[in-house]
Write a structure and sequence with these properties.
The chain is an alpha+beta fold. The chain has one domain. The chain has two helices and nine strands. The strands form four sheets. It has a three-stranded antiparallel β-sheet. Strand 6 and strand 7 form a beta hairpin. Helix 1 packs across helix 2. The mean pLDDT is about 90.
Length: about 120
């Protein structure tokens, strides 16, 4: 998520509203969507089968029940209250953060037939 401030553009996590400070690990999705490492942790722990169709903020694909998705249960004031992330994007972010030598993250989702 991006917003314009007097000093320029500020990038923040769609799910937590936390602003990127060049130290907080974040991954960008489509159309400027962003998830921080803290939100990914919440997503891994809280993802559940969707009960209605959901458009993933990160990949923009529409997911149908019973696919797993996550939304912040109590989105902070600066977060996008409609932000949702699909299980495919959660897995991809988990793998990407684990491969980043500058991020202290061990993969939390075991590989499966879709994600090695």
């Amino acid at each position: 998520m991006q917003r314009t401030e007097p000093d320029g553009i500020v990038i923040s996590c769609d799910f937590t509203g936390i602003d990127w400070d060049e130290h907080i690990p974040m991954i960008e999705g489509h159309r400027g969507s962003v998830i921080c490492l803290g939100a990914l942790e919440l997503a891994i722990d809280g993802a559940a089968e969707a009960t209605e169709a959901v458009e993933c903020t990160m990949c923009r694909r529409k997911k149908q029940p019973p696919e797993k998705t996550w939304r912040h249960p109590n989105p902070p004031e600066n977060a996008d209250p409609h932000a949702a992330i699909c299980w495919d994007c959660i897995q991809q972010a988990d793998r990407s953060f684990a491969r980043d030598p500058d991020t202290d993250w061990d993969r939390r989702i075991p590989p499966d037939e879709n994600w090695s």
